[in-house]
Amino acid sequence: MPGLIECVPNFSEGRRPEVVDEIVHAVGQIEGVTVLDHTRDETHNRSVVTFAGSAEPVVRAATAAVGRALELIDMEQHVGAHPRIGAVDVIPFVPLGTTRLEECVDLARRFGEQVAQRFDIPVYLYGDAALRPERRRLAEVRRGQYEVLRDEIGTNPARAPDFGPARLHPRGGAVAVGARKPLIAFNINLRTDELAVAIRIATAIRESSGGMPAVQAMGVLLQNPGMRPMAQVSTNLVDWERTGIAEVVHEVRRLAREAGTEIDHCELIGLAPTGALLEVAADTLGLADFNADQALELRLARDR
Amino acid sequence: MPGLIECVPNFSEGRRPEVVDEIVHAVGQIEGVTVLDHTRDETHNRSVVTFAGSAEPVVRAATAAVGRALELIDMEQHVGAHPRIGAVDVIPFVPLGTTRLEECVDLARRFGEQVAQRFDIPVYLYGDAALRPERRRLAEVRRGQYEVLRDEIGTNPARAPDFGPARLHPRGGAVAVGARKPLIAFNINLRTDELAVAIRIATAIRESSGGMPAVQAMGVLLQNPGMRPMAQVSTNLVDWERTGIAEVVHEVRRLAREAGTEIDHCELIGLAPTGALLEVAADTLGLADFNADQALELRLARDR
User: Fold this and answer.
1) Which residues 57-96 on chain B approach chain A with CB closer than 8 angstroms?
2) In CATH, what number is assigned to the domain containing residue A28?
3) Cα–Cα distances in angstroms (integers) from residue A265 to residues B163, B277, B282, in the given order
4) B138 with B58, same domain?
5) Rounded Cα gap, residues B221 and B233, in angstroms
6) A173 within some domain
7) pLDDT digits (tens, 9 = 90+) for B79-131
8) Are residues B53 and B170 in the same domain?
9) Beta-carbon contacts of residue A254 (< 8 Å; ≥ 6 apart)
10) Is residue A31 assigned to a domain?
11) Are A198 and A172 in the same domain?
12) Same domain, B112 and B199
């Protein structure tokens, strides 16, 4: 599996399951692509499909998904809580295994250009694939959403697309295409019901308040029927090679002890890169010279 | 990568590198097979090749290796320290990823029958693929080695092969074909130079002296120039789903503390199943409901 890449397109449709099913079907039909997940949110009126494969089939599947979505979704009819600029709102490419982020950057740019041409739709590059520095932030690309972009795209040079026409697609709006590292959603549950402790720890570790790089965190109180309330530090690790799971756990453990409590257990939400988990094993065992290639299946995946 | 299987044939040739290279080449030529490792031992006059793939290419590669070895190795000329019965002495099939041992048992039996027929060579099934219970142990199959088997194969019903003729192949002798679980070679280095401590711990944890199931262990003293001597508990975990790395480390840590010392660090020798390492991560993090499928690349490998 050389150059394994994940693609996580978001679609502006979360209320008609049959539409989402058709898009998932279009992706799943492409040989060499594995659909890993799909979720549909009625409130946001939005869906997320996760699939992976090597570059070529992933591009083919993403193209098929765009084609199907442009047939089935009409942005002029769309309302929902989540900010969006188009029927296929955002298409990030994510490196897996030994694939480098740069490969996804290249892929996103090539794909963006192809999609703009083929479907006559404006494309904005964001994240690590951005060509304009201010477009690294997706929020900037989506400023004012579909409705404002419709007015500004042809008149405001700052809103001109990176590829495609300087007007929205009649039904599909515009597409943001990008590259980013994989994200790990990881929660640490504490042996306390004091929300304040979780909030204090979250604030101490998150990058935005001067904590650990590439860590997002918030404190929440878990309240499940029949169980004692439990304070939780809920984190997103947006670049585990900068700050990994083990580092976050060490720091949260230290801060929890300072606050007179302990980590009870952790939760991994969804999928995580295998390398990020192997790093935890290597850290625990104090493995000298450990290399993720020593994990048989990963080694094989790299060579195939 | 459905049904990923590892194959680790041992050849009775360790002194002529060109012969080993030719065998490795024959294996590497088969599409869908990855050569993971090969080692050559002059003293034992023996080589080991490790490769993997799905069932069909692995069988094709193993067959190619047998064919090449029978052309290039003559058992009548072979001397060496390691017990052996043939030019291709032993061919174990090992389940990787989500492959079950039973699939390797079936494969070993089918392969054994094919090889016996195609090359007119006697084949003995051993390990989990054994058809006679006493042949589960490879040592039993190899009793008296090539020289004794040559005399007994045609006359002693207890030595009759499972497949093929009741006489040795003129140059290649006989082949033992089997199935086994993957083996993890794992060492735990202690912060002491007392060999006796390592020996005591090794004796306490190994199955043969009443310790943990599927654990082999011995105590050794590492003496490297320029470094302090270090006592080591050297282990083989022959069924990590029965006794895993984390369990062994917990127990060795406990025993080391009882002896007034600590684990310094651990070493993983060669490759290990990814699942065995993920188990360590899940244990460390106290991950609730962790599933190896949450490791992205493994999940993908399973589905492809």
Assistant:
1) 96
2) 3.30.990.10
3) 53, 19, 10
4) yes
5) 9
6) yes
7) 877 789 999 999 999 998 778 999 999 999 999 999 999 999 999 999 999 99
8) yes
9) none
10) yes
11) no
12) no
Instruction: Answer whether residue A264 is part of any domain.
Output: yes
Look up A38 and say whether it is catalytic.
Answer: no
B264 in reach of chain A (CB within 8 A): yes
Instruction: Enter the tokens of residue B225.
Output: 């120039």
Expressed as residue numbers, the domain containing B201 is: 184-272
- Best of A277, A287, A298 to mutate (most B CBs within 10 Å, chain B): A277
CB B140 within 8 A of CB B116: no
Q: How many CA atoms lie within 13 A of A162 on its CB side?
A: 25
Q: In whole angstroms, what is the distance from residue B75 CA to residue B65 CA? A: 16
Report CA Rg, chain B: 21
Q: CATH number for the domain including A219?
A: 3.30.70.670
Which residue type occupies A253? R
Q: What SS3 state is found at A34?
A: strand
> Rounded distance, CA B47 to CA A228, Å?
60
Write out chain A residues lying below 8 Å of B253, CB-based: none
Residue B152 CA to residue A136 CA, distance in Å, equals: 76
In angstroms, the CA A68 to CA A88 distance is 10
Give, for all 304 residues of chain A, the pLDDT tens digit.
457 899 999 999 999 999 999 999 999 999 999 998 888 888 889 999 999 999 999 999 999 999 999 999 999 999 877 789 999 999 999 998 778 999 999 999 999 999 999 999 999 999 999 999 999 988 899 999 999 999 999 999 999 999 999 999 999 999 999 999 999 989 999 999 999 999 999 999 999 999 999 999 999 898 878 888 999 999 999 999 999 999 999 999 999 999 999 999 998 887 898 999 999 999 999 987 788 888 888 777 666 5
Q: How many domains does chain A have?
A: 2
Residue B194: C-alpha distances to residues A28, B206, B219, B264 (Å): 60, 19, 10, 14
B188 DSSP assignment: E
Same domain, yes or no: A172 and A41 = yes
- Residue B304 sits at the chain A interface (C-beta within 8 Å): yes
